[in-house]
Design a protein that fits this description.
Blueprint (H helix, E strand, L loop, with lengths): L8 H11 L7 H29 L2 H4 L1 H23 L9 H26 L2
Helix pairs in contact: 1-2, 2-5, 4-5
């Protein structure tokens, strides 16, 4: 599904959470929906981390550990709760790709959120 030759499949895969398999035959419209969904989810995750950091100061004091842990938790929640409840259907990714995506969430989701909250969170 994730192919450098067909990058439109990535946002369409995200939109499939709402549209199901039909997302892959809806062209740019479903890709735009997927991008909107992706950034909405990311903003929601950042909001949750920010709100938690107001109570648990260690989230801001230790952004690397807390951010990477938060990224791992985001992956687990998305893949064990959100995706199964969506219209996307079961994942067909290999264990290697799922593992890479898990680690990617440490560095590309959790860590930037934690560092941003530390820097700009006030």
């Amino acid at each position: 599904m994730y192919s450098p030759k067909h990058p439109i499949l990535i946002p369409q895969a995200i939109a499939s959470g709402l549209l199901g398999r039909a997302s892959f035959s809806d062209g740019a419209r479903s890709a735009v929906l997927g991008v909107i969904c992706h950034f909405t989810i990311a903003l929601g995750a950042a909001t949750v981390f920010y709100a938690a950091s107001r109570t648990w100061r260690f989230l801001v004091d230790r952004p690397v550990v807390s951010g990477m842990t938060f990224g791992a938790c985001m992956y687990v929640v998305m893949h064990l709760v959100i995706v199964p409840l969506s219209a996307a259907g079961p994942s067909r990714l290999s264990f290697a790709l799922k593992s890479a995506e898990f680690v990617e969430h440490w560095f590309c989701v959790g860590l930037p959120i934690a560092c941003s909250v530390r820097r700009f969170g006030g």
